Amino acid sequence: MDLLLISEYIFLASLAIFIIAAVRIATRKTIAMGLVGVSALSIAVATILILINKIHGIGFCRDIAYALVLLGPVGTIAFAKVLKG
Amino acid sequence: MDPIIIIRSAILLISSILLLMSAMGILRFKDDVPRVLYARIHILGVADLACIIALLTLYEPLLAATYFILAPFAAHAIANAYYYGEEDHD
Questions:
Q1: Do A3 and B23 touch (CB under 8 A)?
Q2: Is residue B8 assigned to a domain?
Q3: Would B7 be classed as within a structural domain?
Q4: Element housing B50 (H / E)
Q5: How far apart are CA A6 and CA A29, in angstroms?
Q6: How many CB pairs under 8 A join A and B?
Q7: pTM value surpassing 0.80
Q8: Nearest alpha-carbon partner for B11 in A76, A58, A7, A36
Q9: What is the DSSP letter of A27?
Q10: Which of B30, B71, B76 shows the shortest CA–CA distance to A39?
Q11: A35 inside 8 A of chain B by CB
């Protein structure tokens, strides 16, 4: 195995740990904390999808990552506007 | 070995360390800390930057630039909603 592949797998593992932390934050009782958690979750999942695209060569993962990166913050902003009232 | 490969691997490892530190920081702050949401948004900025650097390393500059532009707006919207919102907070 080459060095880059090992680094990518290490980064994948740290993203998985970060996703566990993000889910724990997203399941707090306040709505704003849920927004923070979901915002963190969206970028982590998008990065994981890009890594899967690079490691295994699955093309549509890249498209899903693009959609997630575009729509994740837009959804967060829209829900925050509603929450603000 | 190609020096570009070594640099890319080092950047990915640094991003991993940043992500692990931010995950630890998010979980270490308890809910009874006053105004803990702002601290968590601040910590998530580190994780956002780690992901942006990693995306640049993985040759996805458009994705990284898009998130680099959108992430501050999302963080500001959350903080603004928490400050002016109807939820109970001190």
A1: no
A2: yes
A3: yes
A4: helix B36-57
A5: 38
A6: 142
A7: yes
A8: A7
A9: T
A10: B71
A11: yes
Query: Is the distance from CB of B65 to CB of B48 less than 8 angstroms?
Result: no
Range of the domain at B62: 3-84
DSSP structure class, residue B60: -
Looking at residue B55, its amino acid is: L
Residue B54 is assigned to a structural domain of this protein = yes
Alpha helices, H only, A1-85? 3-26, 31-56, 60-84
- What is the Cα–Cα distance from A27 to A36, expressed in whole angstroms? 10
Nearest one of A16, A17, A18 to A52, comparing CA atoms: A16
Contact at CB, A40 and B6, closer than 8 angstroms: no
Q: How far apart are CA A56 and CA A25, in angstroms?
A: 30
Phi, psi of A28 (to 5 degrees): -75, 170
What pLDDT, in 10s, does the model give residues B2-52?
Answer: 899 999 999 999 999 999 999 999 999 888 888 899 999 999 999 999 999
Specify the 3-state DSSP secondary structure of B89. coil
**ipTM, 2 decimals?**
0.91
The secondary structure of residue B58, as a DSSP letter, is T
Within an 8 Å CB–CB cutoff, is residue A26 touching chain B? no
